[in-house]
C-alpha cells in the first residue's frame, strides 16, 4: 500500500490529475439506456462512494472504469488516460485486448460475489496475477501474498480453498488478491451485499484500513455508515444520472434533492 | 450412523429417562419374494451356460496367447491415439464453435453435424476407400504416393475413430467451458490477465470438472468401438480372437475370451477415471472423497483399534 502512496508522492504533478474523470458518459444495453450522461471526478487518495437504488447504473459505471463494459458516448479517463481507446487527433482507436489488459493491472476490482478462483487455495488466488501477469517469482509472490493475507487477518487460512471459507473471509481474500497487483485505484462493487450481517464488519474494517493507507477507492455500497465515516465524496445516482453529490456527511444528513430524501428515508 | 445414535442416546436417556422404543419392524414380504425370483433366474442362466456346448477350457488355454496379448496392446494403442486426436480436435472445435468469428463457428458446426450424424463404421469404410476420389496424395516435395499406400489400416482406423470422436468431444468441451461462471472471466480480466491466460489458468481447470466424467465414458466407449476396425483390416483384440476361433475350432469361446479382456480393460479405466475426477474436484467440495485405498486403511484401523492392536 505504501507503494501506491509513494507513487503519488514521487510525481507531484500527478496529484492535480483526477484519478477517475467522467465526462458525459453514456451506456446502453440494447435499447435500455443505463447511464445517461455521468460527469464526476475522483481525486487521488479519495474514498469515493456511489449510492443509489438498484438499477440506477452505479455498478455499470464502476464496470466501465476498468472497461468490463464499453461506454457508448462521452469520455472516461483513469489517471489522465482514456479508458479503452487511444486518441490521435480527432480519431479514436479501440485498444487491443492486450493493451486493455495492461491498463487493468493498475486497477483492482472487488466483486459482490467475490469471484475467487475455486480451484486455487487462498494464497494461490493472491499469487496468481503477480506470477502470471507481472512475471514475479513464485517465492517473491508467495511472501507478498502472505503479508497481504496477514493484513486482511487471514494468514492462518492461506491453504484453504474458497469453499472452505466464509463469505466474509472470501471477500477479504478477494481484496488481498486485488492488492497484490499494487493497484493505484481500487473498485468495490457492493462488496458486502452478499454477506451475512455479522460478517460485514470484518470486510468494512479491511476497507477502512485501506482507506487510511491512502488508497484511491471507488465504492458502490449500501453501507451508509461506512460512507459517512470513511467516504470523502459521495454521489447519489438514480435512473442513470447523478442526482446529488457532495461530502457524505452533508448529503446523507441533509439531502437537498427530493429523490435523495426518499431513498435515504428507506435505507437509513 | 451409529455415532449419531450413540450420542443421541447418551443425551436423551439420562435427561428424560424415557423408555427406548421396542417395536416389531414391518415385514417386507415382497422383497423376499423378488430376491428369490432374481436368484432363481440367475442360477438358471448360469446353469444354461454351464450345460451349453461350450468348451470352457479353451478360454484359459488361449487367454495369454501371444496373439491375444498383441491384440490387447493394439486395442489399447488405438484407444489412446484416437482419444488424443479426439480430445485435441474436440478442444479446437469447441473453441472455434464458441468464437465470435461466424466463419470458424459455422465450420465447427458443420463438422460436428457431419461426423456425429453418420455411423463410425461407414466413416471407416469411407476413409479406407477414399482412393477412388484421390488417386495420389501429393504434399509437394515432402511426400507423394498412391492413396492406397498412404492410407494404411492403422491410419484409416485412427482417422476414422479420432475424427469421429472429435465431434463428440467438441460438444463435451463446449458444455464444460459454458458451465464456468462468467464472474470468473471478469475476475481474471480485472487482474490484467489476457484471453489465453484466462482460458488456461482459470476457465479450463474449472471446466475440466464438467468435462472429465463424460470423457471417461468416451474412453470406455472408444475402447469397445475399436473392435469395429477389424472391418478395415487392422488387427486388434477382436480380430485376433476371431482368427484364433476359426483356426482352433472354438469360435464362440474366443468371443467370451475377448469379452473378458474388454471387461478387464474397461474396469481398469474406470479406476483411473475415479482418480482423475478426484484430482479436478479439489476446491469444489469441502472434503475430497477418500481413495479406495484410504477406505480400506480406515476400515482396517477401525476394526483393529478397539482390540488395542494399534496404539
TrEMBL record, chain B:
CDD domains in the record: TM_PBP2
GO CC entries: ATP-binding cassette (ABC) transporter complex
TM annotation in the entry: 32-50, 71-98, 110-134, 146-163, 255-276
Domain of life: Bacteria
Family: Belongs to the binding-protein-dependent transport system permease family.
Protein name in the entry: Histidine/lysine/arginine/ornithine transport system permease protein HisM
Membrane topology: Multi-pass membrane protein
UniProt record, GO biological process: amino acid transport
Self-association and partners: The HisPMQJ complex is composed of two ATP-binding proteins (HisP), two transmembrane proteins (HisM and HisQ) and a solute-binding protein (HisJ). The HisPMQ-ArgT complex is composed of two ATP-binding proteins (HisP), two transmembrane proteins (HisM and HisQ) and a solute-binding protein (ArgT).
Organism: Streptomyces mangrovisoli
